[in-house]
Amino acid sequence: MTNAEKITAFRTIVVKEFLRFMRIWVQTILPPVITTALYFIIFGNLIGAQIGDMEGFRYMDYIVPGLIMMAVITNSYGNVVSSFYGSKFQRNVEEMLVSPMPNYIILCGYVSGGVARGIIVGIAVTVVSMFFSDLQFYNVWVILSVFILTAILFSLAGFINAVYANSFDDISIVPTFILTPLTYLGGIFYSISLLPEFWQKASLANPILYMVNAFRYGFLGITDINLAVSYVIIFVFIFVLYFYSLRLLNKGQGIRT
Amino acid sequence: MTKALQINNLQKTYKNGFTALKGVSLDVEEGDFYALLGPNGAGKSTIIGIISSLVNKTAGKVSIFGKDTDDDFALARTHLGLVPQEFNFNIFEPLGEILINQAGYYGIPRDKAVTRADELLHKLGLWEKRFDMGRQLSGGMKRRLMIARALMHKPHLLILDEPTAGVDIEIRHTMWEFLKEINAQGTTIILTTHYLEEAESLCRNIGIIDHGQLIENTSMRELLSRLQQETFVLDLGDTLTELPKVSGCQLTLLDDRTLEVVLPKERAVNDLFSYLTENGIKVLSMRNKTNRLEQLFMDMLGNKDAGGQS
């Protein structure tokens, strides 16, 4: 395939993925917006008013970056895991496997679909948060870079989950029992400085902590983690997950017999 | 002449230890209409899976128009169009999108893909359904959609794995005509089917696979010439009470107006009719009891099994 043909193939997957989640926007875009609005009302307005300030910011303002990040993580992950597993289940993944398209184009196409949904949901949630909080943009470049890198990272993770999944149960187990707990314990609602020393150290093993804190730095200029360390962790995860995903595709894990 | 497909010593053992292919070698010439036949579980779909890279082979080599499917996979796949046995399109996508996306995977720009999709939707009688979702189609339409999809990138080799399974006679005949047409235009076709009259009427060459081995690979004409006898069923105009005797033929009265005749290869049908006419027996119609290829196919598989047991 020429480079132009590869770009066409890549664009085909991205457009297909975009149309897929936009066709069912009531299931894909709306729920995270409503859920996040509920978080703002309950944790921000009702409970947050009793909590007072956190690290010098209103509690509502403090949790906004984490809530946006949570929406990006769950949606980029969810998009790829459900779409690629759906293609496996219906066997229409074979349409791509018999084509001359290299495996990295398939992977990048699906990841871009996940990133697109993560970005759209993230922007929607950011807009909603403006109604509830006094949103600041301390460093736009940090916000944008962490936003996109996190979406890439969790799209890749969703892809790996989909490759190994053998049933629809398998694509909900990881989000329910691993992703959600890690997200909630990743410093969205609190600063890890509030935790006892042991749990502060234990929290450092949670990769989501680094993303939430880097993102919070972009909005508020505060972080529990060194920004450079956060970027290194994110890039290392992306690198490892990308090559692992590609290896699975090359092997034909779960898609070739 | 260029080989459309070359398979050399193809072997496949699945993870559960089942050996589906035991060293199959096979060539298909460019422009051929080739039938790959065999009973269920013989290994036909495994061969097709390996050719189309959906199944990993254990050993052997496959090349499509001289391009190795491992070393030169992109070019090899560009030459190949596949119509699999199972429906494998996204049932939640409109037909037009399914076709355009398929072209996109081959690097065909959208404007060209739209033109090609329109052309194929018209040819295969799906134009009216172009905005429908895949799930809204009948079985026959789904089969035609898969043929259209496989042809989007104008492959030189088209493999159809039981394309007419579950399709009514009228649509089956329409599909036959369409396949003949694209074969006449130069597309090499490999067909697997359980309808042996389909293989007999469409294909010029034939391979028979059984228990993972190619047990026959020859021309349809040569294979049919091996038929030692044919069985005909004659519908008679009048009631027949006494069984006529025709030398060299075996006759059975199925009922008082239906006669079964087993005619050896060396006897002409004219001889039979001359005798019947002389004896005032009026024949209204005549048909083969079973399809000729079916008879041979059963004989070959039966002989092989009997040989294997001895």
How would you explain this protein's 3D organization?
Chain A is mainly alpha-helical. Chain A has one domain (3-251). Chain A has helices at residues 3-23, 25-28, 30-51, 59-90, 93-97, 103-132, 140-164, 170-184, 197-203, 207-220, 227-251, and strands at 53-54, 57-58. In chain A, strand 1 and strand 2 form a beta hairpin. In chain A, helix 1 crosses helix 6, helix 4 runs antiparallel to helix 8 (170-184) and helix 10 (207-220) crosses helix 11. Chain B starts with a strand and ends with a helix. Chain B folds into 2 domains: 3-224, P-loop containing nucleotide triphosphate hydrolases (Rossmann fold, 3-Layer(aba) Sandwich), CATH 3.40.50; 228-293, Alpha-Beta Plaits, CATH 3.30.70.1560. Chain B is globular and about 70 Å long. Chain B is built from 10 helices and 14 strands. In chain B, strands 6-7-8-3-9-10 form a 6-stranded mixed sheet, sandwiched between helices. Chain B has a 4-stranded antiparallel sheet with strand order 2-1-4-5, with helices on one face. In chain B, helix 3 packs across helix 4 and helix 3 (95-105) runs parallel beside helix 5 (139-151). The chains are: A mainly alpha (257), B alpha/beta (310). Chain A binds chain B through residues 1-2, 4-6, 8-9, 11-13, 16, 19, 86-87, 90-92, 94-102, 252, 256-257, and chain B through 14, 49, 52-56, 73-75, 77-78, 80, 82, 84, 86, 88-91, 93, 97, 100-102, 104-110, 149.
Write the SSE topology.
The complex is a heterodimer of chains A (257) and B (310).
Chain A: H1 3-23, H2 25-28, H3 30-51, E1 53-54, E2 57-58, H4 59-90, H5 93-97, H6 103-132, H7 140-164, H8 170-184, H9 197-203, H10 207-220, H11 227-251
Antiparallel strand pairs in A: 1-2
Helix pairs in contact in A: 1-6, 3-4, 3-6, 4-6, 4-7, 4-8, 4-10, 6-7, 7-10, 7-11, 10-11
Chain B: E1 3-13, E2 19-29, E3 33-37, H1 44-51, E4 59-64, E5 67-68, H2 73-79, E6 80-83, H3 95-105, H4 110-123, H5 139-151, E7 157-161, H6 169-184, E8 188-192, H7 196-202, E9 205-210, E10 213-219, H8 220-225, E11 229-236, E12 250-255, E13 258-264, H9 269-278, E14 283-288, H10 292-309
